[in-house]
Amino acid sequence: MNNTIQLKIIDKKSVLERFSFSNSTLYLRINAGLMTPPVNLGGRRVGWPEHEVANILDAMVAGKNANYIKKLVAFLIKKRSAAWSDQ
User: Fold this and answer.
1) Domain residue spans in the chain?
2) Contact 39, 46 (CB under 8 A)
3) pTM (two decimals)
4) pLDDT band at 82 (very low <50, low <70, confident <90, very high)
């Protein structure tokens, strides 16, 4: 059985629409550790793994506090690196 996540990358416009954030709010939240940083897709393109965006949005909808979301974001970032450490 395969337990891997089907990765889908979404663009900044989609992230902003999902959260109803402005561009500056998105980057303020990234700097505060409340949002994962984008993934470099080459050139000037960046995007976010859809499952990360969904996890953070779920936590916000559930009313989780900033400390919880910071821990979630740190976990998601660590998981990015761990996914490639066995390769």
Assistant:
1) 10-83
2) yes
3) 0.87
4) confident
pLDDT in tens, 31-80: 999 999 999 999 999 999 999 999 999 999 999 999 999 999 999 999 98
The single-letter DSSP state of residue 3 is -
Is the separation of the CB atoms in 77 and 36 below 8 Å?
Answer: yes
What would the two tokens of residue 4 be? Answer: 């891997």
Q: Could you please report the per-residue DSSP string of 11-55?
A: -HHHHHHHHT--HHHHHHHHHTTSSPPPEEEETTEEEEEHHHHHH
Cβ burial of 52 (10 Å; 0-12, 13-18, 19+) is buried
Name, in order, each residue with C-beta under 8 angstroms of 46's C-beta and a sequence gap of 6 or more. 11, 12, 38, 39, 40
Helix (H) or strand (E) holding 86: none
pLDDT value for 55: 98
Does an H or E element contain 10, and which?
Answer: strand 9-10
